[in-house]
Structures are given as structure tokens and as C-alpha cells.
């Protein structure tokens, strides 16, 4: 290196002497100056290369062009519990909403309720004309009194071995037949008074006093807030996904209310038309929710795993080979493209089945502007 410097200085000095000894304004002088300048450049170029080699041997980073880094943020590929849910629509139902009907034929002599009225169990809602039944009862009672007297006398004589057995049995049969007839008429009389089978609210009264009704004619629609539940239809594709007692998230869009409940029953029959089965969900005793046919939205968990690798769905991209994400290793300044196999997605989160083991730093913001090997600067 020292000899190189000395030779360079000698050449430069010689060129200076030559150039000073001659007239540089002439053509020949200019040519000589040009040649001297070229020789000077060759010498300097050789020196530059030698210096670059020497410095690179001691400092490998010397001379490398600094690549501009892309600003990104990262999030960890968390290992956590993951659930996938489906949403289905349900309706509020009640097992105590019934149409109360007449059981005997006759004319309605009174209708004692109106729509919207609250009634107690056993309260008379309407009455059917029972005059003929009452007269029949009075007649049977007279006949029964006579038949009872005859039977008692026949019984006393029979115990004294007086009279025939046929007379005794006939008197007994007459008495018992009349007792049964009287009991039947009293039942008919009781049915002439139409009573509420349970406490509730009258929603509809489709008849009026004076109207002749037949057995089965609807007298009133009685609604109760007891034994209410939510009924939903679920696709047969989810058979075996739910069990009795599973937790359910329930919301009522019209009321802006929600609560947590459980499955109380799962249907065992598939509807041929809709290809669905029924799911019943318990309804809390909240009077504001106790409205028959009120629409609800149920969220049912059809898949869950306790230790899953979960990442936000927004960081996932796709190419010809499939889905991928970018990761940044500890101490690494470059983004790495990693292909992943995905599972279920729910609530803007996706389960990663293969490709990530959990704990990796996945590029979040800026993932759309980087490529495999891009220099990045993490700014979390």
C-alpha cells in the first residue's frame, strides 16, 4: 500500500513538471495535458479499488445501500379458546295459549268477558242455556227418591227371606241407573258454564250472547305468561352439534334486549319441507319478553376448541397457492410470507390449523404494502 502511494506521487509530480515545461495553449500541449489527466485518473481509480477492498475486509456493511423500511404494526398469533356460532331466528311460544271451546250444544245466555280482560283460573267466561238440563235433573231426582224407597224396602224384605231375588236385584238396578243418570246430567249442567282452565288474559272473544253454539265452537282465546319458551328452526346440517343444556345468547331486536339462556329441548324429527329440526330455549320470567310470536335471534355454538391459534381475519390474504400472512421474527427486519390452513371464522377472528404454532408476530397494519423479504420497521 505504501509503495502504491509513492509511485502515485511520483507520476503526479512528473506530470506536473512536464505540463509546466511546455506551452499548454498549443494543440500539442493540450493533447499532452489530456493524456496526463487520463493517466492520473487511472492511478486514482486503482487506488480507490484497493482501498474499497481493504475496508470491506474489515467492515462487511461498508458500501451497502440502505434499503428504505416499510412501517408496519404486528400482533401476536394468540393461542386461546375459540368458538364458532350460528345465528337463527326464533319465536316466543306458550303452552298455555288456547282457544276455549263449548262442550255442549245450546244458546249462549251470557258472555262475561271482553278482550284484554284478565281472568283467574275457574272464572266463568260464558254460560249456555241449561233450562232443559235443570228440568231433567229435577225429574231424575224425583225418580231416584222413589227408586231408593223401593230398593230399601226390597232390601229389608230380602234380608228376612221375603220376596224373590229378582225383585231385589231389579230395585237395586233401577236405583243405581238413576244415580248414574243424575251424575251425567250434573256434569252436563257444569259444562254449561264455560270456565277458564288457568289464569291469563282474554285476547279474543269471537262469539256474542244469544248465539247458538255447537260442541267445539270457540268461545274465547286465553293467553297466559306461564310455560313460555322460544322455538327456533335449525338446519339439518347442524344435527349433533347441540346438546340439551348448552348455553345460548338470545336477543330481541324490537326490544333492544338480550340475555343468556340454555337449550331445554332438541327435536328429533326433520321437517320434510324446510329440512330443519326444532330447538327450544328457556325464556326468563320478564313480563316485557312474554309476548307470543315475539321475534328473537339465537346464537348457538356449533364448534369450540380450548387451545387454538387465532388471528384477526383482516390480516389474511390469498394468492394462487392459498391463504397466507406475513410474519416478522425476533430481531429480523424482513417480512416473511407464511402460507396457512384456516378453520372456522367468527366475530372477525379466524382459527389457524397449520402454518402458525402460536406466538408469532403477524403483520397487521401495512400487510397490504409489503412482500416476502420486504424490510420493515415495526411501530407497535
Describe the main β-sheet briefly. 6 strands, antiparallel, barrel
For the record, the count of structural domains works out to: 4
Uncertain regions spanning at least 5 consecutive residues: 15-21
The CATH class assignment of the largest domain is Mainly Beta
CATH topology of the largest domain: OB fold (Dihydrolipoamide Acetyltransferase, E2P)
The quaternary organization reads as single chain
Spatially, the strands of the biggest sheet line up as 3-12-15-14-13-16
Structural class: alpha+beta
CATH architecture of the largest domain: Beta Barrel
How far is the first residue's CA from the last residue's CA?
Answer: 50 Å
Q: In percent, how much strand structure appears in the residues?
A: 35-45%
Q: Any overview of this molecule?
A:
The strands form six sheets. A six-stranded antiparallel barrel has the order 3-12-15-14-13-16. A four-stranded antiparallel sheet has the order 4-11-9-6, with no helix packed on it. The chain is rod-shaped and about 175 Å long. It folds into four domains: 2-58; 70-82 and 306-378, conserved putative lor/sdh protein from methanococcus maripaludis s2 fold, CATH 2.40.420.20; 86-95 and 224-303, Efflux pump adaptor protein, beta barrel domain (Elongation Factor Tu (Ef-tu), domain 3, Beta Barrel), CATH 2.40.30; 98-222, RNA polymerase II/Efflux pump adaptor protein, barrel-sandwich hybrid domain (OB fold (Dihydrolipoamide Acetyltransferase, E2P)), CATH 2.40.50.100. The protein has 380 residues and is α+β, with helices and mostly antiparallel strands. It starts with a helix and ends with a strand. The protein has helices spanning 2-21, 27-58, 131-159, 165-191, and strands at 70-72, 74-76, 78-94, 98-101, 106-111, 118-119, 124-128, 193-195, 200-204, 212-213, 218-223, 228-235, 247-252, 257-266, 276-282, 295-312, 317-319, 322-327, 336-339, 341-346, 349-354, 361-363, 376-378. Helix 1 (2-21) packs antiparallel against helix 2. The chain is built from four helices and 23 strands.
Amino acid at each position: 500500500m505504501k509503495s502504491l502511494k509513492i509511485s502515485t506521487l511520483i507520476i503526479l509530480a512528473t506530470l506536473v513538471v512536464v505540463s509546466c515545461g511546455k506551452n499548454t495553449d498549443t494543440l500539442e500541449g493540450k493533447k499532452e495535458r489530456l493524456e496526463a489527466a487520463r493517466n492520473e485518473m487511472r492511478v486514482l481509480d486503482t487506488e480507490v479499488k484497493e482501498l474499497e477492498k481493504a475496508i470491506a475486509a474489515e467492515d462487511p456493511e461498508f458500501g451497502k445501500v440502505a434499503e428504505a423500511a416499510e412501517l408496519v404494526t404486528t400482533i401476536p398469533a394468540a393461542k386461546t379458546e375459540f368458538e364458532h356460532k350460528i345465528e337463527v331466528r326464533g319465536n316466543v311460544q306458550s303452552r298455555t295459549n288456547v282457544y276455549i271451546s263449548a262442550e255442549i250444544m245450546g244458546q249462549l245466555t251470557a258472555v262475561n268477558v271482553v278482550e284484554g280482560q284478565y281472568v283467574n283460573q275457574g272464572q266463568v267466561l260464558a254460560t249456555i242455556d241449561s233450562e232443559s238440563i235443570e228440568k231433567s235433573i229435577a225429574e231424575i231426582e224425583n225418580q231416584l227418591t222413589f227408586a231408593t224407597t223401593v230398593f230399601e224396602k226390597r232390601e229389608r224384605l230380602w234380608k228376612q227371606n221375603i220376596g224373590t231375588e229378582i225383585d231385589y236385584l231389579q230395585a237395586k238396578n233401577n236405583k243405581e241407573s238413576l244415580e248414574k243418570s243424575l251424575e251425567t246430567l250434573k256434569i252436563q249442567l257444569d259444562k254449561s258454564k264455560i270456565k277458564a282452565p288457568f289464569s291469563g288474559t282474554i285476547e279474543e272473544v269471537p262469539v256474542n250472547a244469544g248465539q247458538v253454539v255447537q260442541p267445539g265452537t270457540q268461545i274465547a282465546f286465553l293467553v297466559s305468561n306461564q310455560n313460555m319458551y322460544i322455538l327456533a328452526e335449525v338446519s339439518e346440517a347442524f344435527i349433533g352439534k347441540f346438546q340439551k343444556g348448552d348455553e345460548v345468547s338470545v336477543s330481541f331486536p324490537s326490544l333492544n334486549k338480550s340475555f343468556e339462556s340454555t337449550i331445554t329441548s332438541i327435536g328429533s324429527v326433520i321437517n320434510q319441507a324446510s329440512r330443519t329440526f326444532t330447538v327450544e330455549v328457556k325464556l326468563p320470567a320478564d313480563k316485557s319478553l312474554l309476548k307470543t310470536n315475539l321475534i328473537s335471534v339465537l346464537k348457538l355454538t356449533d364448534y369450540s376448541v380450548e387451545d387454538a391459534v387465532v388471528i384477526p381475519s383482516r390480516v389474511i390474504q390469498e394468492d394462487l397457492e392459498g391463504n397466507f400472512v406475513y410474519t416478522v421474527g425476533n430481531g429480523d427486519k424482513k417480512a416473511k410470507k407464511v402460507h396457512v390452513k384456516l378453520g372456522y371464522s367468527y366475530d372477525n377472528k379466524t382459527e389457524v390449523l397449520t402454518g402458525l404454532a402460536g406466538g408469532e408476530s403477524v403483520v397487521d397494519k401495512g400487510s397490504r404494502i409489503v412482500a416476502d423479504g420486504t424490510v420493515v420497521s415495526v411501530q407497535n
